[in-house]
Amino acid sequence: MQTSTVVADEIRTCFNFEMTSEPVVVPTALARNQAARRRRVLDAAMSLAADGGFEAVQMRDVAAAAGVALGTVYRYFDSKERLLLEANAEEVEALGLRLLEHPPVGERAADRVVEVMGRACRALQRRPEATASMVRAMGSAPPTEADVVVRITQAINGIITGAIHSGDPTPHDLAVARVLSQVWFSSLIGWVGGVDPPERVLTDLESATRLLVAD
């Protein structure tokens, strides 16, 4: 992504503290256009997945729905699995940002974790076919996609540990988050595979949370 860098002059406050600003990265018009095209591709993929599931996400159809050339789609995403994984990562990260704006309000840590997981589950249940597509992409991701799988996992861990308490997570917090994220993924597989009803996902998560999260 091309950027131009603007560095502000040194600033002195009225309290006579010296403060030097960090470089401010200002996206160029080209970078903004590229980001907009990438966003259209992601949105088109999720729309196709919501309507027809994993098989409906064909790169040529994504390009047509996004209004870009097929080569543009492959410039950003080398496979539809990568495309769906990137969409998954952005959805989880967006949830994390929404939770910063509207944090859980429970007095007990377990209640707060259940609340944020409930919000996530309800969002997934509103688009079951898209959710199934993302779960399938996550479950079949080859080692070459490990970076985006790690990104998704870290975002989920951040949501869970942030609900446990503010500040840096402890090793125990991270261990709890890892187990809960595995429970979540396993329960999602059961739901999208037709084994369990959608309500079972949150039921499993709440049971695991009550066992693992101390108040």
Q: Helical content, roughly?
A: 55-70%
How far from one another are the termini? Answer: 45 Å
Give the full name of the CATH homologous superfamily of the largest domain. Tetracycline Repressor, domain 2
Outline type: globular
Largest sheet data: 2 strands, antiparallel
H/E order of the elements?
EEEEHHHHHHHHH
Q: What is the rounded Rg?
A: 20 Å
State the helix count.
9
What is the CATH topology of the largest domain? Answer: Tetracycline Repressor, domain 2
Strand content: 5-15%
Kindly name the structural category.
Answer: mainly alpha
Strand arrangement within the widest β-sheet reads: 1-4
Tell me the CATH architecture of the largest domain.
Answer: Orthogonal Bundle
The stretches of 5 or more residues where confidence is low (pLDDT under 50) are: 1-21
Arithmetic mean of pLDDT: 88
- Tally of extended strands? 4
Overview of this protein structure:
With 215 residues, the chain is mainly alpha-helical. The chain has two domains: 1-77, Tetracycline Repressor, domain 2, CATH 1.10.357.10; 79-212, Tetracycline Repressor, domain 2. Helix content is 67%, strand content 6%. The protein contains nine helices and four strands, in the order E-E-E-E-H-H-H-H-H-H-H-H-H. It has helices at residues 29-52, 59-66, 70-76, 80-101, 109-125, 128-139, 146-164, 171-192, 199-212; strands spanning 3-6, 11-12, 18-19, 24-27. The protein has a two-stranded antiparallel ribbon. It has a two-stranded antiparallel sheet with strand order 2-3. It is globular and about 55 Å long. Residues 1-21 have low confidence and may be disordered.
